[in-house]
Amino acid sequence: MSNEDRAAIFTYGGGPVTVSPRTLAGFGQPVPFEYDPSYLKRFKDVERKVAEIFETDQDVVIMQGEAVLGLEAAVKGLCREGMTALNLVSGIFGKLFGDWMRALGVEVIEIEAEWNDSIDPADVKRKLDEHPEIELVVVVQSETPSGTVNPVDEIGPIAHEAGALTIVDAVSSFGGSPVRTAEWNLDITVAGPQKCVGGSPGLSFVSVSDRAWEAMSSNPGAPRSSFLSLLDWKERWIDAGRKRFPHVTSVVDINGTDAALDEFLEDGLEESIARHDLAARACRAGVEAMGLELWAAREEIASHAVTAVTVPEGISNQAVISHIRSAYDVMLSDGELGEMIDRVIRIGHSGPVSRSLNPIVALTALGQGLSDFGVPVEIGAGVEAAMQVLRQPVEEDGAAAFA
Amino acid sequence: MSNEDRAAIFTYGGGPVTVSPRTLAGFGQPVPFEYDPSYLKRFKDVERKVAEIFETDQDVVIMQGEAVLGLEAAVKGLCREGMTALNLVSGIFGKLFGDWMRALGVEVIEIEAEWNDSIDPADVKRKLDEHPEIELVVVVQSETPSGTVNPVDEIGPIAHEAGALTIVDAVSSFGGSPVRTAEWNLDITVAGPQKCVGGSPGLSFVSVSDRAWEAMSSNPGAPRSSFLSLLDWKERWIDAGRKRFPHVTSVVDINGTDAALDEFLEDGLEESIARHDLAARACRAGVEAMGLELWAAREEIASHAVTAVTVPEGISNQAVISHIRSAYDVMLSDGELGEMIDRVIRIGHSGPVSRSLNPIVALTALGQGLSDFGVPVEIGAGVEAAMQVLRQPVEEDGAAAFA
Amino acid sequence: MSNEDRAAIFTYGGGPVTVSPRTLAGFGQPVPFEYDPSYLKRFKDVERKVAEIFETDQDVVIMQGEAVLGLEAAVKGLCREGMTALNLVSGIFGKLFGDWMRALGVEVIEIEAEWNDSIDPADVKRKLDEHPEIELVVVVQSETPSGTVNPVDEIGPIAHEAGALTIVDAVSSFGGSPVRTAEWNLDITVAGPQKCVGGSPGLSFVSVSDRAWEAMSSNPGAPRSSFLSLLDWKERWIDAGRKRFPHVTSVVDINGTDAALDEFLEDGLEESIARHDLAARACRAGVEAMGLELWAAREEIASHAVTAVTVPEGISNQAVISHIRSAYDVMLSDGELGEMIDRVIRIGHSGPVSRSLNPIVALTALGQGLSDFGVPVEIGAGVEAAMQVLRQPVEEDGAAAFA
Amino acid sequence: MSNEDRAAIFTYGGGPVTVSPRTLAGFGQPVPFEYDPSYLKRFKDVERKVAEIFETDQDVVIMQGEAVLGLEAAVKGLCREGMTALNLVSGIFGKLFGDWMRALGVEVIEIEAEWNDSIDPADVKRKLDEHPEIELVVVVQSETPSGTVNPVDEIGPIAHEAGALTIVDAVSSFGGSPVRTAEWNLDITVAGPQKCVGGSPGLSFVSVSDRAWEAMSSNPGAPRSSFLSLLDWKERWIDAGRKRFPHVTSVVDINGTDAALDEFLEDGLEESIARHDLAARACRAGVEAMGLELWAAREEIASHAVTAVTVPEGISNQAVISHIRSAYDVMLSDGELGEMIDRVIRIGHSGPVSRSLNPIVALTALGQGLSDFGVPVEIGAGVEAAMQVLRQPVEEDGAAAFA
After folding, report:
1. D373: contact with A, CB 8 A cutoff
2. What mean pLDDT value characterizes chain D?
3. Which among D149, D157, D148 has a CA at the least distance from the CA of D181?
4. What confidence category does residue B397 fall into, taking pLDDT thresholds of 50, 70 and 90?
5. In the prediction, which pLDDT does B399 show?
6. Is the pLDDT of residue C15 over 90?
7. pLDDT digits over B59-115, tens only?
8. D381: which chain A residues are within 8 Å (Cβ-Cβ)?
9. For residue C27, what is the nearest residue in chain A, using CA coordinates?
């Protein structure tokens, strides 16, 4: 059997991420009838657990498709022809938001940063001051294809103060970086189970503020009786006492996601954020010590979820990734979408692979793979630098064992 | 632990259906990166296997949400403001199609049958003759909430001859009754893994004829850059060599569905259809012998997937279902949607529960449950009648063992 | 795929029993190193949970082979050449005990009951009075092949009073009937996970009193440095602080058994005993109403774990069992060992299949199978009689729903 | 949740080894009745697959307990009081064999090598020439606690030529090094699923030659009617047409082992041996480049399954192992038994962890762990040396992608 007939032994990509055995067992649980009391209870539990990670008391809708469904639903729910929105673009997902809004007839004002950089909140404030007609600010907290983040902690309050609603793409920050929906006054945040909480793609998590529900309800173009409709969930599920779903739900995804969230919350949100940060720092230290270049312009804007490495001149990232997969049974990823596709190789460290020495495997695979293509790489130095980040002192009683 | 803290021991509902251990193990498999070669291969395998069950060579799109997504995508892909469509309504899903089309500005002509009956193909022919402007015929092959079927084998060719495209909702017939897409000239058939093939909700299977692709491509209103877009799948996936997905796919659903389809196809499509038919006949014989009434007006239009039983006068189906779940740990279902909700109790016999003596459990639970509410029910007679259908002769060598 | 290429859909045999999905997931958990702290903890947890079901505070040894290992280890640990033992024989396992003891040079006195009957405690008292040299009383609490039980609640105290040690085979009573080790003064009780607690064969549970440990320690012939040695477990594991196992343990069996015990104990021991009793009563009522004959001479000595049905004259139980498996995908069992093999067909109702309407499936399969061989069977009457046992009243609020 | 409440993320110990997801799914399969036709077929399949890896046509017995059961059964089956045996001791398992045989009254002649060295076949030949009364030669092919091997390929034929029977402990060589039972004339070889074939402990694989069966049958002391009896398996199972087991089998272990063997054989025996060799060489290169010392005296006698590293002076291996587990979530192992316990730290690379970059994780964990205790370790150099062993050239078409 070739190693291409089964999944790679180690997967470190932009996502879907490696899923823990406990969560896999969750996906493999028996499938109940959708109105079995145990399932209704579970569905509501998932909503509650997601809200806990969003750090919000507002409504959370679990839409039944991968997070891009939630993003599209949020935009289509809030956007009206002729309204003005401020779109903050620092990568491919930001660009996609602009395309969607323009197609809906929205007047889109954009602030664009370099795709290895992030949005300056001062620019946001200035733009909102200049354009009091702006009703909506759209921002990607973590641009997964670039491995960079935007300061939503500052942008959220600025937008709120200016009276604009916000849509925040928190897909790859959710669970790995703070997403303080309430504290930051975010109106719609969208995430999914398939990154830092260690689930798998298939659901959208959407938190919606009362102000956002009002805007949506009064928007004649907001999807209704549709797979894309947040309002269906509000009217048929939430407001009707959570007894009937607006359409059939993805039972297996709910089962597995519930297990992932349990595992996540037993460890704790703060612990998870710290762990993702640690793994990311180890990766970055390793990449630089190996003599490679990080895509992110600055350390402070690098993602906790994924580390993008600039592809060395003259090298095809596809060829390297394919060789690493075939020779070492390790799967890394490219830039995945649009203009990012061939500019980076990404090491994912979200979910279960944020633990233990996974960054060492990813760094060694990347280093060796590039070295096999003739790129000079200091693998040993990379591993040592990463271990300087990951190393932990011997505990008292352990130390005592040392003569 | 109350029995409401876990799934019922036996589930016989309209769906999601009970899933086999082998398929559950499929759902619990490791989650690969989406562009791992093993996953790309699997995704294409799923397409091929679905086409085999649709009995077609045309394109099959695996959309990443439950079958209602595929239904909505088909309607939005083919419908244009001002066009004329013929909608065949014999139940709640037929009604939903009409609502969707009217909301898109389609001129909808409807033929409506009683909701315990089916559409007469002669009426379809007549209507098409009267209205040559009809471009599209929409029909539900198997109305799951009512447990009734429409003769798509006749309607498909009639519509095709009249030059109209067809959209067929084959969700609960797929795998349990013939869906001869090619032979019957069906343009778009929509199904899902969560009924007779024994998977779980979360994907839409959509077969699309070349004629349908052409109509969609030239429809300016067809969804594009959207979760609802079939064209995205055609342009970014199929026509581009099946290398990149238009958006992130539901990996766990694909993994499990692949396992379900393998198990299904190893048994064989014809064997599965025969087995679903047998289970359905046993259920109907049992229901009638117990002294209860079938919802379907006639035996010939009863579904292979689910048997709807008319709720006896003065009885709340909810109360009975809830009592059966709590007292006997068996989950049956109501009519699930709209006007059907409180009119029937349904016994599902799709997928794994089409096997062995599952109909006996369902019949006994239903009979006892109703009896507990004071309805006179002949449980023993029902079981014996069902066994008359299921019984099999002793094989030669077995018989020889009998003195 | 023939239905003989996979496990039967429904399994109701003497054992191994059907295992719940949750326990199966336990078996499928990752395999840790044996001295991983999580595994050491789990192993000790299993010991504690088993002691809880044995209702004892004395040591529990988890031997690493199916329960017959524990039985052999108990006999070899306590028996010395020339000692006198009283063996109570009411079935095949009782007979096996006698063979083992005689092979070890023990003077064996036996009380034998008919194999469809049970031992009279008064006989035990009389024999102990007559033979004050008896040091050991050996008894099978539940003879699985015959589906009958002995009154260990009376025999245990009688033996204790007479100063004899006891070995009790509680394999198929454990978890389904009371096994009050402490209260009844039992010295060694042996059980396993594969019957009423819903696990799978592969481990022996052995509770050992201090008196039994003393006798074993002073027995020069007791196994040492052997897979059969209880003393190895005492000396290398228990007395040494539970840090190193005497030999490699069956990690997967421990993982799955721990899950089974959790599921069992969450429901509760008393609840489980009541449920096994109910299922057994339903089976017996059904068997008799169908016109078939129970093997057990009297209702009071029938097992909670398994119901043995006398094979009708002129019928081969093998042929019937094989036909039922092939025609209805239901697996029943024969008498399994020695002289019992062809005398009965057994319906197992231990573990998960003690729940819900499983007895109905087993009864219907048995009835139809025999009927297919020409035996006159009242299947409907059997199902109705069983349901009279299983039926439960509608709860208040449910009843209210009835007009 | 502390990381001690669940299994370590990475396990590299002497065994039980990490088990692949596919094999874990095998363990989690439904549990059939033992005489379900599907299970009888599976049991026989397992025998056949084991014989294939033993490279033999002789009988294979699958005993129902961890491999030490098979070892004890082999010794007790072949040994008689007063006979003479040659025991080859190069480690703790060799020593154990001697103890067992002496306890049975065997005249044991021993050749003992240093425990980091191996037996010289010339010594075996000389001893057999000197002692023509030797009837049995006992040898451990792979001493797991020391990570060293003996040349059974030479010893087997020498013993055979001298007319002696052989018992070979092949537990940790089976599947990772050649075990040519037929070609080398080995009479009894004992192995288990829990090392290089990637299963879990709970079964013994025992191949038995006709000559060995004869010797056992004529041995009055050979176990009979016992968990330890190979003869029970021969008489009640093999000779009786493989229809009834001598006692209840460990169904879950058989299920999972069958899956492990399938996965193993699909890859191929030769491929597996090459892969285990490669992982072992990478580990040894890494250990030496880090400045640490291998336990094995010479490269040629180092095991493919496990690499033992000498504990640096003044360091407690327990403290280091415990620190690595706690700080890095990686589980290594000590010397496990008797005198080996505190002399080494072992890196296991058997089964699934022989794949991909697992050796890098183990080496980095070991290196960092020792470094944390103040031992000077060149981690980077170790990783680079290991990668020099593991590196693979870029395939043609990949290379072409490099400018």
Report:
1. yes
2. 96
3. D157
4. low
5. 44
6. no
7. 999 999 999 999 999 999 999 999 999 999 999 999 999 999 999 999 999 999 999
8. 380
9. A25
Q: For residue C400, what pLDDT is reported?
A: 37
Amino acid at B382: G
D238 and D281 housed in the same domain: no
Using the 8-state DSSP alphabet, how is residue A335 labeled?
A: -
Query: Which residues in chain B are closer than 8 Å to A253, comparing Cβ atoms?
Result: 202, 250, 252-253
Neighbors of chain D by Cβ distance (3+ pairs < 8 Å): A, B, C
Buried b (16+ CB within 10 A) or exposed e, B73-108: bbbbbbbbeebbbbbbbbbbbbbbbbebbeebebeb
Number of structural domains chain A divides into: 2
Structure tokens at A84: 């003005």
Q: Which structure tokens are listed for D344?
A: 């080494």
DSSP A32: -
Of A264, A296, A317, the one marking the end of a domain is A264
CB burial class (10 A; 0-12, 13-18, 19+) of residue A190? buried
Nearest-by-CA chain D residue for A398? D319
For C299, half-sphere exposure in the C-beta direction (CA atoms, 13 angstrom radius) is 9
Neighbours of chain C (3+ CB pairs under 8 A): A, B, D
Confidence of residue D1 (pLDDT cuts 50, 70, 90): low
Q: Are strands A204-208 and A188-191 parallel, antiparallel or unpaired?
A: antiparallel
User: Quick check: A139 pLDDT over 50?
Assistant: yes
Last-in-domain residue among B203, B233, B264: B264
Chains contacting B (3 or more CB pairs within 8 Å): A, C, D
CATH code, domain carrying A396 = 3.90.1150.10
Q: Taking every pair of C-alpha atoms in chain A, what is the biggest distance, in angstroms? A: 76
Regarding whether C226 and C294 lie in a shared domain, the answer is: no
The predicted structure's pLDDT at residue A15: 85
| Residue owning tokens 């809200």 | A51
**Torsions phi, psi of C166, nearest 5?**
-125, 145
User: Mapping DSSP to helix (H, G, I), strand (E, B) and coil, where does residue B298 land?
Assistant: coil
* Rounded Cα–Cα distance for residues A337 and A332 (Å): 15
Residue type, A402: F
The answer to whether the CB atoms of C201 and D256 lie below 8 A apart is no
The answer, yes or no, to whether residue A64 has pLDDT greater than 50, is yes
Q: What is the CATH number for A176?
A: 3.40.640.10
Residues 10-29 of A with CB under 8 A from C: 21, 25, 28-29
Task: Transcribe C225-263 into DSSP letters.
Answer: SSTT-HHHIIIIIITTTS-S-SS---HHHHHHHHHHHHH
Q: What is the pLDDT of residue A401?
A: 38
Indicate whether C235 and C249 sit together in one domain: yes
Q: B251-278 as b/e, with b when 16 or more CB fall inside 10 Å? A: bbbbbbbbbbbbbbbebebeebbebbbb
Question: Can you give the pLDDT at residue A397?
Answer: 60
| One domain, residues B36 and B138 | yes
| H or E stretch covering D389 | helix D379-390
- Identity (one letter) of the amino acid at A378? E
The per-residue pLDDT for B400 is: 37
Confidence (pLDDT) at D397: 60
- Say whether both D162 and D310 belong to one domain: no
CA distance B201 to chain A (A): 5
In this structure, what token pair is assigned to residue C248?
């490699």
Looking at the structure, tell me whether residues B210 and B297 fall in a common domain.
Answer: no
Interchain CB contact of D225 with C (< 8 Å): yes
The pLDDT score that the predictor gives to residue C395 is: 86
Looking at D152-293, list the stretches that DSSP marks H as alpha helix, in order from N- to C-terminal side. 152-161, 210-217, 230-232, 251-267, 269-289
* Mean confidence (pLDDT) of chain C: 96
Q: In chain B, how many H helices and how many E strands?
A: 14, 13
Q: Two tokens at B27?
A: 């759902």
Q: Do C252 and D29 touch (CB under 8 A)?
A: no
Contacts for D160 with CB less than 8 Å, ≥ 6 apart: D166, D185
> Is B306 found in the same domain as B157?
no
**Interfacial B residues in 239-278 facing C (CB < 8 Å):** 266-267
Whether C166 and C312 map to the same domain: the answer is no
